[in-house]
Amino acid sequence: MTAANASPVQANAQQRYEVHRADLPLSCPLPSMGLWNSHPRVYLPIEADGGESDCPYCGAHFVLVD
């Protein structure tokens, strides 16, 4: 199950998220998260950063898994 198809989750509820290529382009908060209680959506260049990227707003760490 990809992040886009997962059940809605609270925004910024955890500090590490595993994402898949189907979830690209990667943004924080993820599309499955509510924006009303979070920061503005920002797109993260996870492929250019060696498969890992951190959100500059909330510090969430994203890891690209295959």
Automatic annotation (TrEMBL):
<dbReference type="InterPro" id="IPR019401">
    <property type="entry name" value="Znf_CHCC"/>
</dbReference>
<keyword id="KW-0479">Metal-binding</keyword>
<protein>
    <submittedName>
        <fullName>Zinc-finger domain-containing protein</fullName>
    </submittedName>
</protein>
<keyword id="KW-0456">Lyase</keyword>
<feature type="domain" description="Zinc finger CHCC-type">
    <location>
        <begin position="38"/>
        <end position="62"/>
    </location>
</feature>
<keyword id="KW-0863">Zinc-finger</keyword>
<dbReference type="Pfam" id="PF10276">
    <property type="entry name" value="zf-CHCC"/>
</dbReference>
<dbReference type="GO" id="GO:0016829">
    <property type="term" value="F:lyase activity"/>
</dbReference>
<dbReference type="GO" id="GO:0008270">
    <property type="term" value="F:zinc ion binding"/>
</dbReference>
<keyword id="KW-0862">Zinc</keyword>
